Amino acid sequence: MGLDQYAFSRKKDTIRYQWRKHSRLHQFMENLYKEKGYTNEFNNQEVILDREDVLKLQKAVKNNTLPKSEGGFFFGHEFQDEQAKEYKKFDLQFCTWALKELDKGKDVIYDSWW
User: Fold this and answer.
1) Are the beta carbons of 112 and 44 closer than 8 angstroms?
2) N or C: which end of the chain has fewer CB within 10 A?
């Protein structure tokens, strides 16, 4: 039980990347979701990422500036600094993949549930 996170491209529609309790990434995506004007609770809600979103994420990962999460009961926010360090290389691989998918005209989606 806990925060499960996924990313995939719509035209392929298979999960390509999966995280577990990476609460800083989730906070980044929740902030992005709100910036895009969505108001529903951010649980089981897709965020379609554009090039600007991925580049912003890539910069935050590289600079170790993913936003701090207040977390939820099962988010793993107690060890979010360690998770951000552990996932850094994986997050950057995701960004590279996402940019290539966008270049191919595919939608890149982040989804999560808890």
Assistant:
1) yes
2) N
pLDDT digits (tens, 9 = 90+) for 71-94: 766 777 788 899 999 999 999 999
Give the tokens for residue 49: 């990422």
The pair of structure tokens assigned to 94 is 């995701």
Query: Whats the size of the chain, residue-wise?
Result: 114
In sequence order, which ranges of the chain are alpha helices (DSSP H)? 23-35, 51-62, 80-103
Is 63 in a helix, a strand, or coil? coil
Measured CA to CA in angstroms, residue 68 lies from 49, 50, 80 at distances of 20, 23, 8
Token pair 């290389």: residue: 89
Radius of gyration in angstroms for the set of CA atoms belonging to the chain, rounded to a whole number: 13
